[in-house]
Write a structure and sequence with these properties.
There is one protein chain. With 189 residues, the protein is mostly helical. It is 57% helix and 6% strand. The longest helix has 32 residues.
């Protein structure tokens, strides 16, 4: 078997990446995708690899934590309410969080994440017009919800990065698209 990666020692075959790419390229928006066998096409395959291994990490961790989807599993809009939230957490985590199991893990991992009242007061003082409302208490409640959501997304992203670092091995050619060591990385400063 030709490997693209392993997750906790379990193989991820190149054929699985191929299948994901074929499925993606069969969608109506295929014209927006880069051509295969180009630098951008290889970057797309790296992104698909990251998505696939991250899905496997979530499944593995859900099992290890005893987490499953329940009626209290948050909806996608509760976890990622807007574009800012999606950008904060990153494209891979945002894509994975479309799955209810990933959102159940998110809820478990971030259950104890909160913010203190001083943080809310400080934010309100620095941004008095950000959340206009009928009452100061309502404005502070909205601020607290926004800041708590951001703190939870940050905590989940860090947890997910740590779990991937511990569990995932990537074959040459399947590195993270942003890895400066891979030849198709075009991010320059």
């Amino acid at each position: 078997m030709n490997l693209a990666a392993t997750v906790g020692g379990d193989p991820v075959a190149i054929s699985e990446i191929d299948a994901r790419e074929v499925a993606l390229r069969s969608c109506p928006q295929t014209a927006a995708l880069p051509r295969p066998d180009t630098s951008e096409g290889r970057q797309l395959r790296r992104w698909l690899t990251q998505l696939l291994v991250t899905e496997r990490v979530v499944i593995r961790e859900a099992d290890a934590l005893g987490v499953s989807v329940t009626d209290s599993t948050p909806g996608a809009d509760a976890v990622l309410p807007d574009l800012t939230a999606r950008l904060e957490i990153g494209s891979i985590a945002a894509a994975v969080l479309a799955d209810p199991l990933a959102r159940a893990v998110y809820a478990y991992v971030t259950a104890d994440v909160d913010i203190d009242e001083d943080t809310v007061i400080d934010y309100h003082r620095r941004n008095p017009r950000r959340f206009p409302s009928d009452s100061e208490a309502d404005g502070k409640r909205k601020i607290a919800e926004m800041l708590r959501g951001a703190a939870r997304r940050r905590a989940f992203r860090l947890w997910l990065d740590q779990r991937r670092a511990a569990l995932v091995w990537l074959a040459p050619g399947y590195e993270h698209p942003g890895d400066p060591r891979q030849p198709d990385n075009i991010h320059r400063h």
